[in-house]
Here is the input.
Amino acid sequence: MNSVLKIIAQRLALGLLTLFIVSIVIFAAVNLLPGDFAEAILGQGATPEAVAAIRTDLGLDQHPVLRYFQWLGGVLQGDLGNSFAQANFASFVGDDSGVRTTVAQQIAPRFANTMFLAGVTAAIAVPFAVTLGILAALYRNSVFDRAANITTLSSISSPEFFLAYVLILFLAVLNPWLPSLSNIYDGMAFSERLEKTLLPALTLTLVVTAHMMRMTRAAIINLLASPYIEMARLKGIKPMRVIVKHALPNALAPIINVIALNLAYLITGVVVVEVVFVYPGIGQLFVDSVKIRDIPVVQACCLIFAAAYILLNLTADILSIVSNPRLRHPK
Amino acid sequence: MSSDAFKDAETLVEMRDIHMEGRSDEEWHPIIKGVDLTLRKGEVLGLIGESGAGKSTLGLASMGFCRDGVRISKGSVIFDGIDLLAASAEEKRQLLGKRIAYVAQSAAASFNPAHRLIDQHTEAPISHGVLSKEDSEADGMELYRKLRLPNPDEIGFRYPHQVSGGQLQRAMTAMAMACRPDLIIFDEPTTALDVTTQIEVLASIREIVEEFNTAAIYITHDLAVVAQMADTIKVLLKGDEVEEAETREMLSNPKQDYTKSLWAVREFQRPQKPAVQTGTTPVIAVQNVTAAYGKVDVLHDVSFDIHQGRTVAVVGESGSGKSTTARCITGLLPPRLGQISLAGTALPLDYRKRDREQLKKIQMIYQMADTALNPRKTVGEIIGRPVEFYTGLTGAAKRKRVEELMDQIELPASQFIDRLPSEMSGGQKQRVGIARSLAAEPEFIICDEVTSALDQLVAEGILRLLADLQDKLNLSYMFITHDLATVKSIADEVVVMKDGNVVEAGPKTEMFTPPHHPYTDLLLSSVPEMDPDWLTNLLQERGVDNIGDAAVGKMT
Amino acid sequence: MSGIMTFIIALIVIAFAGWVFRFVGQKATNNAPTFRDMPFAVAFGYALGVAALIWAVWTYVQAQFILPEAEANKYFFFVVAIHGLLLAGAAAYVFRLLGRIVGTAGSRKLFRQMPLTAAFGVLVILVYAFMAIFAGALAPHGQEEVFAQANVVPGGNPALGGNPDFPLGTDQIGRDILSRLIYGARNTVGIAFVTTLIAFVVGGGLGFLAATLRGWVDQVLSRAVDVLMAIPALIFALLLITVAKAWVDGTGLTIAMILIMALIDSTRVFRLARAVGMNIVVMDYIEAAKLRGEKLSYIVFREILPNATAPLLAEFGLRFCFVFLTISSLSFLGVGIQPPLADWGTMVKDMSSFINYAAFAPQVSAAPLLAAGAIALLTVAVNFVVDWMLHRSSGLKD
Here is the structure.
């Protein structure tokens, strides 16, 4: 058991280190480029005063390394800084009351919305995909398997916005069953919230299910080819018991891996889908901020996405270590 | 033990005119082309043949089972009055594990890594309703004891990866015995094991099969093994039966040419060359070499000489450091201590520091011809590159030299020079590998298990070729092998290694006559011989506790 | 509620039909192994499949022949999809048949072993390549040409608000959609192709270098790639594009995006090239070449590279799909390929509001779906071909 703990601790440390370096990369990407952001933001008509004001406002006159640690220190305390849009406004009007919506305040409610969307998606997609994947593996090369192969391949190949519009077309426009816009606000009833989230969640489900099902199928087929499954069959064990008792315990690690990897994939999908459905989540905020070059918000969103991604991969890693009998019962 | 004893016994399995096909490239190709098989109660049938003969496929078919992509296209399989090919899946399932059991080649892969041995053992008896869990567990421990597994009461509670290969193979035999079946199929159960481990497994399988009077089909490619185990031997060649006879009859009086040639392989033996005069400089001298992977020493103070025109066989079981020694000589793994001398001058330890002249003199032939030849290059390019690289020949002169070399390895250049490795058989590929090393005009060649991936007849051809080349070109060989039959046929001197140490070294004749070091003795005595009484005699001579790993344990 | 009840009753009927099917099968074939050993789940699956097929045919017949046009509009896209599917199947079949008759012995053999999906994929790729190369000659109008008539309905039927000059209609500012679709093939596909190519040269080169040299070169490159891969591709691309936006605009931003995507994708290529390289480097023939005293360049170019082309080619297809989809997503989000270049992702974004007219004027809403469908079709095609290639190479190993 000791060695497992040791490996897990190593992975955790590695994940933290990666996250730290990623934060440097994100910070450096926007700060170490030649030239001056303040000028770039204001464009050609910038007066030196305005540039200087913004520079002070953003702390751009300080050394980058110092700024990085200030930023990191803030992040660790939950302070993600102020958005450029706010800073701009304050400096120009000259009415800097000091009371501004911070990036953190902007992100918090949207973060919750995105988590809700991801949660609904996972709740539909995971059981659905794993069941289909196992079925496809059991009846491989059958008509069902071939049809599933073509369908999932097509679904993987389609951009998220295509699937989104096809779903809108059939489920919202032609058959008015679900709303095509996800205008969610605070204090909404859960059922209503769920209804508005369903269409974006279904879109994401289509994409994620296809990936997850194919990977589950591959993992199970790989497993069913192993000699110990043949041995179990040759012992005259009932087919159902072969699956449950012999295949499943060993399939756990690969399936967990598949699930975690695909949930990580959701992160990318969420951005596009939120834009299509005007879902007030962190992805939409991210895209909006990219368009208006609101660097602090972009940085913060990027860091959150990267952290979620690293965390999910780490979880996959650790769970598959824990579910591996060779590591659980060392020599 | 004669098959006459079974003449009156009831027939257990009756296979008639079996045709089987395998699927590849969307087409069905024949694997078995009309084989009959009759097995009586209590009889052990040895099924032998080279790789691709279809012996495993036939063995599984006798259980009414086909792997994915294989089918029985014609014929019938009757097990104790039940037509297995007409029986429903449910009926067959009731027989499998209960009346027919299977022991696979790789025990490590055939045990489920997620469950304890005893739980896998009791699974069949419980689900077939033969024994309760408690009874089956107790019976399992009893079987473990009979099979001489260490700590029989405790070993079942371990997971497969916590138990060694030889022990797992015995545990699997116990598992097959759990319902006391009428028939067990042994599919190459000892092929993956070292000789000293193999002998233990063989002895225990034979004993338990005899005790319960179980009928068995024993599948193997090793004649000497089948001679110990079987009452009757059936020889297969490419899906056809060659002949079948009672074991002693088959060994002493084979009828078909193919069988005779199989038997003859074991007889190729070169006369030993006279001892080297003291004071001559060896071609290669390994002097006090200690080498490590990372921080762990894997070779300890290894020394031996290889003289001109001689073959030194380095023998030992897996993990004994044979191949590591070769890596030290070639300079791929620079030793931590000691040195390697070529014709009296010390070589730089790292191959990157050696000059072209030094590299040229030491060449290598690899075990797996598949990985030793670049699959994207033709034979002409493979052999031509070292010719050009070392001698600077190009154009017509280079081609002439390549043709000469191909002549030496007995592959007609007109036919083979433009072929890719994938278009040749295993033996032909190995010959190309030999030609590539000869192209450098070396003085010394390391042969790393060059015959172990080949069928016996082909292997013998390679050995004869190497012997001829040695006489013609006055080459020195270092022959790494775990197969003592190869050693007997080709070596002049033998170096025995164990755990990174040289245990014993000397001329072949001395090494094969007692007295010698106990490990050498054990190793030599563990190699099965063609005599059907060999195992019986050995067990009488040494006793069950002085063979195999048990004996190794006593030594250290 | 009644919907759920219908659903449950339908399931029960189908389950019963499955049972009957198996039972009749057993009796009719005198217990042939197929029916004798058939689990109920499989029988149920067959019944379900048949039910779905009947529903599809029934809906199709209704929409085509029975329902009045106003109601049939609802099934417009369903009918189009069925037609498209049948047409695609027929085209692929004819194409494969042609391939089996015409060509060298090698290509004929290839077509004989090809499944229909792969034949379809090859055909689509060829058509797209043709469109991309001859876009200038094929397109009736220029990609930036703005006409007076905006929002012309696709179909070219004046009665429905179409115009034969613009067979697929015009967009919200009056550009010909057909021309922009054709130019989109050149721009979108071309840009994705170039990006993937750069990624392969950079990532592949460094990957092989790391595999051959090992040691610190490998360590440094691999760790750097680990970090870059810890940020999701689309997110990282958006971040870098934000930065790039501060300095360049228009076509300059398009070029910046190409470089950014190439950089991000080269990390994935690096991983694969390194893994493939590692598998080859451990081969004995590489060891033999090293022991012969061969130089690094000979080992990389003459021994490793020829053996790496097959897996890399399949990966090129997959990477292309990924880059193509990501660039389309970026364009859809408004930060990818910039005007004046016509591009499918941007077209979808610009015309997305047309979707809402689907119920009464299905032709109108087809426009954005056409652009999105063009993206999906190519990726599906490439994936079909790659799937077949991978299947073939894995089959040959056995």
Q: What stands out?
A: Chain B touches chain A through 30 residues (CB under 8 Å). The two ends of chain B are 38 Å apart (CA to CA). Chain B has a mean pLDDT of 86.
